[in-house]
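Slack export, channel: ligand-projects

TW: morning all. Re-posting the request from yesterday since it got buried. We need the structure predicted with the small molecule present, not the apo form. The ligand is magnesium ion; the SMILES is in the block with the sequence. No rush, but it would help planning for next week.
GE: picking it up
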Amino acid sequence: MGSGSGEKFHALKGVSIEIPDGCIFGVIGRSGAGKSTLVRTINLLERPTSGRVLIDGVDMTTLPAAELREARKGIGMIFQSFNLLSSRTVAGNVAFPLQLAGWSRSAVGDRVRELLELVELTEKRNDYPAQLSGGQKQRVGIARAIAAGPKILLCDEATSALDPQTTRSILELLQEINLKFGLTIVLITHEMSVIREICREVVVLDGGCVVERGTAFEVFTRPGAPVTRELVSGFMAKDLPPQFADMQFFPKPASEDIAAGLNIVLRISFLGDTAASPVISGMIRKCGVDANILYGTIDHIQGVPYGMLVVELSGESSERSAALNYLRNFNLELEVIGYVRRNASVAV
Ligand SMILES: Nc1ncnc2c1ncn2[C@@H]1O[C@H](COP(=O)(O)OP(=O)(O)OP(=O)(O)O)[C@@H](O)[C@H]1O
Ligand SMILES: [Mg+2]
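GE: finished. pasting the full token output, ligand included:
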């Protein structure tokens, strides 16, 4: 990809991604991160200057033109801007790729009926795109993209122009076709909520590089890269509420004597089924510390609970060490936020 100065600009660098068959796979990143470029290399709308694009073991970059055209039929695509043909009706839009592929008139009619039923637009079959809402337009886009029965569906910001409720209904439809037809869906978005709703696996792109990958659950609960933390922070109440701004935190004191006069404030993140309260009460009983719960939230990612507690621990330093060791036995994440003076009151 050339840039104005004549120097080579690489929109993607050293990206290596494996997308499991039948998965709903998310690609997230800020504007300009390279998301669209990545997805366009999958069907070779964008030809990589180096590297391979393997689909079912076949390297797309080596295919001659005719075979590439054939292979592309196995890959549907939907866009933020819908890209419908304004002069064709709903049914006409869905029929279009089938007519191009040379399907018989009756086969096209049957298939279009089936698809319009699937996307719940049977009543709108004779309407034109201009008469449709954004959500309805995207349903036409989806019906058209999967008309010829592709194995892969690429979605570039397919819900970005839609309100939250319509977005949810489109995501439900994508989930339905993923389950029904075993379609692999690659979904680009800059909205974490979309990832959280339906993606099983995710990569985070930044500056053309993959900076994070994992299951949606891992990426939400243990974001590593700064850009991921930023994207996630709006969703998970990972950061402390403003009331804590008044609390004076000290770093870990060098001497035990000083530490003895301080309490530890911990952030404990509970993943999945680890229940919070028995762990805390167990720690108090077994380790002789006192725990004051300062703050707590619980959220869900694809139905899996994710909770966070901020706890102030007080006790002798040996008791507090024992408490930290005790907590490390469980499937939870621990972070020492800092040390506070004993009896420093927190107005929460
Ligand atoms: N053909 C091209 N020539 C030169 N630069 C390009 C070309 N296509 C894309 N870019 C640049 O590559 C980078 C990645 O672009 P891309 O469209 O993939 O980003 P994106 O993550 O999809 O962003 P957005 O969220 O805004 O859609 C950008 O800096 C863009 O300006
Ligand atoms: Mg883009």
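GE: first-pass observations. The radius of gyration is 26 Å. Residues 24-233 form a domain with the Rossmann fold fold (CATH 3.40.50.300).
TW: perfect, thank you
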